Amino acid sequence: MNKKVLLIEDDLQMQTLINDYLKDYHFDCTSFANPKEALEEFSKNQDFSIAILDLMLPEMDGFDLFKKLKKIKDIPIIISSARGDIGNKIHGFELGVDDYLAKPYEPRELVLRIEHILKKYENSKIIIGDFEIDKENREVKVDNFPVEFTKIEFEVFIFLIENLNKISSREQILHATSLDITTKNRTIDMHISNIRYKIGDDSKNPKYIKSVWGIGYKFVS
Question: Do the beta carbons of residue 75 and residue 51 sit within 8 Å?
Answer without folding.
Answer: yes
